[in-house]
Structure of CWF19-like protein 1:
Amino acid sequence: RSVSRRLACGDVEGRLDAIFGRVRAIQAKSGRFDMLLCVGNFFGSTSEAEWAEYRTGAKKVPIPTYVLGANNQDTVSYFPDVSGCELAENITYLGRRGVYSGCSGLQIAYLSGTEAQEQPAPAHSFSAKDVAELKTSLLATPNFKGVDILLTSPWPRDVGTFANSTGEIDTKKCGSKLVSDLAASLKPRYHFAALEKAYYERLPYRNHMVLQETTQHVTRFIALANVGNASKKKYLYAFSIVPMSTMDPSELVKQPQDVTENPYRKLRKEAPKSKAALCAEEEPACQFFFDLNKHQGKKRPSDGKDRGDSQPKQAKKPPQPTGPCWFCLASPEVEKHLVVSIGTHCYLALAKGGLLPDHVLILPIGHYQSVVDLSSEVMEEVTKYKAALKEFFRSKGKRYVLFERNYRSQHLQLQVIPVPLDLCTSDDIKEAFIAQAQEQQIELLEIPEHSDITQVAQPGTPYFYVELDTGEKLFHRIRGRFPLQFGRWVLASEALLAQPQRADWRQCAAQRPEEAAQARAFRREFEPFDFSLRD
């Protein structure tokens, strides 16, 4: 199967050197991407001098780049042909509206401009007629089930309904109703938009009515910020995708645990159903669960027993260790002088031979091998400890990096290591992990922020997993040998903490009185943030 690696980008606003410089850096570290898809304002009011260098070929574009058209009168002149054309070598204007089909079979639907407020629609706007014609051209296709990607500049109106918070953006007022209508009909697996100078990754939403229609794929809506914004909001999004036309239908329709109701449900009820739309609903949708992790979506249970049903999991007692366990709290082997907080289901302990003095472990009290084995109430307390540690470390000007290695280990250990905020950004941390992984031929992939590790790994699957306190995650499914100290080694490297001499915990072990003193100091500082003392 053909896996495409794509980049999507928010408003470039004429900052061509900035975006192409960033793409070069990413490709140097993470390998080649197939294309860059740009939504929002590609040109800005001061683009001319920079643009001339690319238009004439004096500067080269490092990746095939596809852009949407103007969103205002000022930039209309940059797009000479409304039906789409090459603007410079490796930069293609897709056109006013349509479908781009790559040789891999990937279908990308696009709509340029903003919603027209007047008739006739100006050159930088789209009308209800444009949307209707684009819908009709696709819905009339035999067995139409959706498109792989939808590109629009405006957000869809009401995309925040049933969703995680959109921050300062009020989706009941912002965005376009016509774009909502288009997204509801075209059922993209990914929908990218911009213009609001904000980054927002919505929880995935379903494209069918539960118990009323055949299960269909989910949609992930991602809004991207403007290139080089001062707030360092995310403007570039990397993802891997297999064309829906080549995927196994049962794999395509798997539902992630955090899936929500369709935000445009009301629209769908109101819209008259065309014959083509009915056909699409009657057939099992040929779609998706997990693009971003390439082939990993198929590893989830496919026997219909959805892991989202937590009742049986809650009833299950943790398995007993086969021999002595250093981390079961009831075990005599536990070094209790290192324990700094005890909850109902989990506890917190300083790491023995920690990379830093405030390197801590989140551990289940009972014997669980990995995060994917945890019952829902244990998982809930793990989440509370993560939130408390985030608040604690942020109060000290630090961000945490958490990792788990479910490989040659008996008892779950979530390693939590603080990194000074002024030392590196979350992107620097991710890039350091990805670069070091590549050197070792380890495929470390980014997974969507609101996804859960249980969606990509079944119990018993060996894996390595990194999570930042922003919610960003990296995942590697271990299929052979794996360096046991990998997570620690990356954090100790020159790229991050620059303490390579502390990469091996055995070189850092202290005497018991010193460890006990460190634990007392940590306990005292952490106390205002420790929910276990209040619950």
User: Anything to note?
Assistant: The first strand starts at residue 4 and ends at 9.
